[in-house]
Fold this sequence. Notes:
single chain; alpha+beta; Immunoglobulin-like; 4 domains; five-stranded mixed β-sheet; about 30% strand; rod-shaped; disordered N terminus; disordered C terminus
Amino acid sequence: MPVRNTDSVINEVITPIPLTTARLETAQDGVDRQIRDLVENLRPQMRHLFPDKLDALSGTSGWSPAARTALTKALRSGDPEQIYEAWLEAEPNNTTGAERIAREAELQRAFKRLEQSAEEGEATSAQIEDVRDALDKLAVSDQDTGQLTVALDELDTWIRIQEVLDDAEPDTGAAKALPKGRVKLIKNPNLAVGTAVVLSNSTVMVGNRGHGGVEITRGNAAEALGLPVINDDPLRDAEGAPQRSGTLIMNPRKHGETIRYVLNGEEYIMRAGTSQRLRTGQPWRIEYDRGANAGVADYTLTDGTYVWTPTERGWQLYKQRYDVTIDNTRNPRDFHFVVNDEPIMVRAGHARKLSNPYPIVIEYDRGNGTEMVSKSINFSGNVEVGVNAEDNLLDLFAEQGNAKRAVEPELFQ
């Protein structure tokens, strides 16, 4: 087949935004700022759980001056162990009070470390866990726990994004394609839906604006961008030029039988999965034994496609017409292709019907703009435009019973 690559038939899948040095540095600055803001917003929710020094000292009126001084110093240091020991030194039987104020101090210390690291752009998930552990030791209300859990989860997500960006290496140019298979996905609410940045062979940042907050998940990058990813075999490549006139006789591979026949007085043998092309402009008389004691068939073929078909009355040679629907309803982008040298387009979210007396050969660009592929459709039915899960490029897939395919195969149904 001739290779065509005109602008009118170029398809778009997703061209990732290049991760330039400047763009990476800007992203890192933005994430650092986001972490600092989240920590700052978290402080008022945490502060009422920290030790109340005045309240603690108000309960020590019966203590000796030395014991009160020791507790005051311990509270200033923020060291939970010192606070615990100072309290028990004055009230050996009040372990409950000592534990409560020591645990509050432990939460304050863990959060202060997180604050300092966030200011320096070095906050870690381990520090988030320290804060969680300190919270677990306190008798916090369910309402406070729920609010703090949500806030800490969001903060932890941004910290993990920070770690990914720190490991990312800028590209010298635009990435040609999305990584294959399941990868780590960072959903970024600051990026428009349908945009992507490849951070590594295993991590892609996808736009999520207007569709939720920041999130880290795993999945297929093309599917996350709203493309119909299909985990199945696409249509087979076409063999030879398309038939546009004359007569075509086909023996489908699925029947697995060899057929003998006489055409204009000459004997032929057609094996399963093969075909014969006859030029137009002259009559073609065919004779063959139907088998199954059905007798001999003898008639003249006209222009069009004929397919050998086994029936209860032996072999029949049926004339075919191909009615195909190109289903682009799940694809958010227009699909361009060529049939018989004619550029055709199916708009995003739509379908288009094609009819032909011969198998329909479709040529299309797979979305990388480098070459056209040719697929032969020798049946009537629906053919879906989708992204091949093997390489994240466009392909055509036969729908079975008009049922669309999914990205992941079902192991049990």
